[in-house]
Design a protein that fits this description.
Elements lengths: L2 E10 L2 H12 L3 E2 L6 E4 L7 E6 L10 E5 L4 H14 L2 E2 L11 E4 L5 E4 L13 E6 L3 H11 L3 E5 L2 E5 L6 E4 L12 E7 L3 H11 L2 E2 L15 E5 L5 E5 L3
Parallel strand pairs: 1-4, 5-8, 9-12, 13-16
Antiparallel strand pairs: 1-13, 2-3, 3-4, 5-9, 6-7, 7-8, 10-11, 11-12, 14-15, 15-16
Length: 243
């Protein structure tokens, strides 16, 4: 492996405001970011951060990726929902129906997330940030397994999931068909362990594609020491040089 998952980052119109929401909800501490962004420690064995990076892109559809928060009891689930609503979240309808045992919310910038009912065996031991649930093909799940060096922990009926060898959050893909590109979404930031150019070539060999600076959707495009790529499903991610 030649790069690691540095952050799961939110596209944000107001990064500081959104970071305060997620810090309050998760009890996550702010940390220095060598790339000049806003970052929180995830408190997760997977080792990544939560990032908040500025964008002017509008949110045009349901996000392709969202967090599933776990609960230890019905009371714990209700408490997490209450805290989120007090911090500025709202209830969201993504077609879950009135009998759903999980609660769907949206943060102050409209990013959907779920607070799951207790007893989810698949996410047992994963921590509060139990899963990043993504819309995506089997090919993209296998791409990210190879890109990050995280083993597949599920690969069945077009659905895939990976998890860091150290445990923590699982990243899952639900298979086709894919939802429309939401524009404003959650994205992966990778840090190259060694040579940035060599790591770009490795990721391209696995199925990534280059994204031109004027196509990235970022205000100002990529900065020095970073490259914007897209995975096999067209989801953009950043590869960052080590600092």
């Amino acid at each position: 492996m030649s790069s690691r998952l540095f952050a799961i980052s939110f596209d944000a119109h107001q990064p500081e405001v959104l970071a305060r929401f997620w810090s309050g909800l998760l009890g996550a501490e702010r940390t220095d970011d060598p790339y000049g962004g806003v970052s929180l420690l995830s408190g997760n064995d997977a080792g990544y951060r939560l990032g908040f990076r500025p964008t002017r892109a509008p949110k045009t559809a349901q996000n392709r990726a969202h967090f599933d928060l776990t609960s230890s009891s019905p009371e714990d689930q209700r408490r997490t929902v209450a805290v989120a609503l007090d911090l500025g979240a709202r209830r969201a309808d993504v077609g879950q129906g009135p009998d759903a045992s999980h609660v769907v919310l949206a943060d102050p910038e409209g990013n959907e997330f779920c607070v799951l009912e207790p007893g989810n065996g698949f996410l047992a031991g994963c921590g509060l940030l139990g899963a990043l649930a993504c819309d995506g093909t089997r090919a993209v799940g296998r791409f990210w397994s190879r890109a990050l060096g995280w083993p597949l922990v599920w690969d069945q009926d077009e659905e895939t999931a990976i998890q860091s060898p150290d445990g923590g959050t699982k990243i899952t893909w639900g298979g086709p068909p894919l939802m429309p590109d939401a524009g404003k979404d959650l994205r992966f930031d990778l840090m190259a362990d060694d040579d940035l150019k060599a790591e770009v070539e490795r990721l391209l060999s696995l199925g990534a594609e280059r994204v031109a600076a004027d196509e990235s959707g970022e205000s100002g495009g990529p900065g020095e020491g970073e490259v914007v790529l897209a995975d096999p499903d067209g989801n953009e991610f950043r590869l960052l040089a080590r600092r």
